[in-house]
Amino acid sequence: MFPQISKRALFTASAAGLAAAALPGARQAAAQQTPRNALVIAAQIDDLVALDPHHSFEVTGSDLLKNVYDQLFIIDDSKPSAELLPGLAESFTISADGKTFTFRIRQGVRFHSGNPLTAEDVAFSLRRPLQINRTPAFMYRSVGLTADNIEQTVRQTGDFEVQVTFNEAYAPTLIQNLFTATIASVLDSKLVLQNAGEDRGNTWLNRNSAGSGAFRLTRYQPNESYTLDRNDGWWRGRANMQRVIVRHVPEAATQRLLLERGDVDVARNLTPTDIAALRGRPGISIQEFPRGTIQYFSANLGDPILSNPRVIEALKHLVDYDAIANNLLPGQVFPHQSFIPRAILGEVNERPWRFDPTRARALLAEAGHPNGIRLTMDTANTFPSLDVAQALQASFARGGVTLEVLPATGAQVLAKFRARNHQLFIGIWGLGYPDPHYNADGFAHNPPGANNPGKLTWRNNWNIPELTARTEAAMRERDQNARAAIYRQIQAEFMGTSPFAVFAQQQVQVAVRSNLTGYAASSPGLSAILWRATKG
Amino acid sequence: MLQARPGFRQFFGVRPRDKVKASIALRQSSGFLFQVALTLLGLLAVTFFIGRVVPIDPVLAVVGDQAPRDVYEAVKRELGLDQPLWWQFWVYVKKMAAGDFGQSLLTNRPVIEDIKRVFPATLELATFATIIGVALGVPMGIAGAVWQDRWPDQLVRVVGLVGYSVPIFWLGIIGLLVFYGILGWVQGPGRLSVFFEDMVPVVTGVILIDAAIAREWEVFWNAFGHVVLPSAVLGYFSIAYIARMTRSFMLEQLNQEYIITARAKGVSEARIIWVHALRNVSVPLVTVIALSYARLLEGAVLTETVFAWPGLGRYLTTALLAADMNAVLGATIVVGLVFVGINLLSDLLYRLLDPRAK
Lengths: 536, 358
Description:
Chain A is of the alpha+beta class. Helix content of chain A is 34%, strand content 21%. The radius of gyration of chain A is 26 Å and the shape is globular.
């Protein structure tokens, strides 16, 4: 319109704009390499709700807390399967009736504050979970410890001796495994009491730490990052890394870029696509660690169609087990069909079920459904449950089962499941402590009249007085091999007739800088291992 | 006795007219405050009741999958969720009026503390993005109007179209890949590189300002290197919007009679564009810029996710998905206040720019 003059006029104005746009280029950022004595991890940590070890119940929580607190026993972190080692309890003896355990506490251990660790701290820490009564307290209640009896059942009997009396003569391995859990963390009682408000230090401990472990927590910003600094006087030895920084990076693609640039040493939550792209890349290596989490779907036996055992059997034939592990979730899971995860006492690696649509059709016809059936499956609208549900929709169709997938938020489907309003439910179950009882309690224990929505058996209307009795017997079997044998029998029956189809166990697949060794993103002790990490 | 004492009026030198003016101003501002309070209360009520009818159980978000019934019930009582809805709302409003926004379920910290952390992050990003949007969008819009249907206009149109239609997370990831991953011109995701964290004391929460106060220039440039890319990505969308609007406002003005008059009088073309026309589009332009700034201040979930930027958008979304109502309500109030504040600010600007509004 007005060519000659406005060009000049415009130039002045645009120059300002262009200068602003060109500025980022003006200051070039050099690629950073993380220091040799610091480990930097990019991970998703926004599900980290509680830092109080007697309150926390998430895997991200135990990844942090197990490295900050010590427990009475340890799962050997140099072995591929869960083996016990003495921790803060140097040794223990069991009374003649088998109910009272006397723990000898290790001497010379100091908390990060400098306070010496004594039996008083241990007794305080064993009582506290029941007194603050958060979710993990049920693990202590399942062995007969309650808020009402805890002052009598847990007694300090010497400067370095604590006695605990349970309501039954439980298997020593059960008690030891239980006392490796985050809930069994020993707190610096003097420090906690100095800072405790009305809630026994719950609020304070959700933002501070009071432990004796390999690292102390020096900084924590929810949904942003946390920093652990080495405890030079740790009784098991000094960690190699002086500092560990875990930064919340929600997007997998961003984690990958950070790793490629060398700004982090570990990318914790990559997708199979990212992993495939990084495999073979110089300077980067891919590592896999089994996790104590299994994936399953279950059928509500209160439903008229699903109450027929032949229908359940047909559904188990309609899962394409190998395709899920190899094509849908490669590297994220491996095939597994029993409820005790691999690496835990009593594990069963047989896989009796195979994808067989023809057999499934025949079974449905026998059950009186020659033209197939229609079912609904509730699933969280997130990876991997939703993805698996969609795969099941396709494989079920080949056997004449029309599956309607009902995705909703995790909390929403869980509420429906707990209220027993589902037909099929697809879910994930994490082991709370590395003992077979934990999962047997969820999958093969349903005492009559328990009315307990925390139990998967109850949620699916599976009434099993006989299996329940055997699960209870396994809790009391003192011989470790005999105990493992009972769990194997229970699982054989579980795999045959239960309304649960376990199809996979999860593993953590991480990409790390090749100079990093000794880091484990997951372990049979159910947490990350940081203290052995070292850079070459 | 009847001797007039030096009264209040004389003492402060207030004349009757001033007093009337002052009382009008007072009435206006108290009316304004009342309006704001009512708006916020309405906002709270709507958010609260929607939050409560959404079929998400906040108790399960706290206790987790495997919790037995008694723990579930205990936490439900603790959160006050066993009380009737109207009572829960009353309790909430009462506490909030006293400045207590409650605890967030997800971070286990007071909501106000969380917001003090996430809002400055968003403020930093939104301000930069708006500066970029204005610095580039306004000249581009003017160029489009001046050379209507010529190549500068077409260019502006294409840039705008791309800005509207490309998904922001894609642009963010590509931006990261190119400028951080390949070229290394900018810093990576997050607000600071990990080793710079906690190096400057928190004063405003905006790291650039805090670093400048502490005279930690290395931290300052590191933070700058982090904010450039996400704000450029967000700013691109502002550019698209602002350029489109500027173009259409300018076109309207350039066809007015007073422009023809000016031109007939021999006023230079530059003066016509930058003084006559631009001055007249400044009022609607302020509205557009203010609205786009306010929208950015709500937080940008996708950008924040891609760039691991701990801002308000992600805080609010995460809270919403877990029905963490205290956090949701607290963040909603902040967004409400931002809108009120920006409205007030643009009102003031109108008065400066438009003599009729005085």
